[in-house]
Amino acid sequence: TGALSAVQRQLEIQESQLRRTRSEKETLQKELRERENQLQAMSAKFCSLREEWKHAEMMATMERENCSLRQTVTKQESQLAEQNQVISDLQSAVSQLQAKVLVNEYHIQEQQRAQEAIQSQADLLQHTEQQTKVALQSITSRFERYRSKIIQATFSAAGSKCPQAELTDEEVLEAMQKIINERMEFHQMLKQKGVK
Which residue numbers in the chain have pLDDT < 50? Predict the structure, then answer.
């Protein structure tokens, strides 16, 4: 967005220079027309007085003025050509800046669309995370109830000592394995004695 603002400011400066140059061009064209009118008037005056020898000095003066006007016209035509070149360069620069503005606007739109897509994915992930947390809490609660029942069943057997502290999963597993082994031994003993 900063780059787009900078390009737009540069575009406004270039357009202002273009307007100023066009105004200067119009002023030069107006002066050129006035000089040409003066030149035509002087030429007409020169033609009317050329045949009068008594105005020889005036004719020489007019010739000098005529030469000076021609030099001025030539100079202004050169300045006008330079102004035309400046206008052409400014128009080219304005076109390039406008193209940059379009490109930057396109990039900004692409970034906005990408940001919206990322935000949508983030919202979906957040929703999924919340659902997962709820499911995890439910599974954890069920697991704790199941573990509590296993511990209760394991240590309620005859000959088992009630635990004084919180048991680890390994200790619960060892106690269950001990009960299973004792039951298997008792079953084998009954089997050997022929008791069904």
Answer: none
Tens digits of per-residue pLDDT, 4-16? Answer: 888 888 888 999 9
Distance between CA atoms of residues 24 and 95, nearest Å: 21
CB 100 within 8 A of CB 7: yes
Q: How far is CA 68 from the centre of its chain?
A: 59
CA–CA gap between residue 73 and residue 32 (Å, rounded): 6
Distance CA 133, CA 125 (A): 12
- Give the integer Cα–Cα distance in Å for 174 and 177: 5
Whole-angstrom CA distances from 60 to 41, 43, 73, 139, 174 are: 16, 12, 20, 116, 133
What's the predicted TM-score (pTM) here?
0.42
Is residue 69 within 8 A of residue 42, CB to CB? The reply is yes
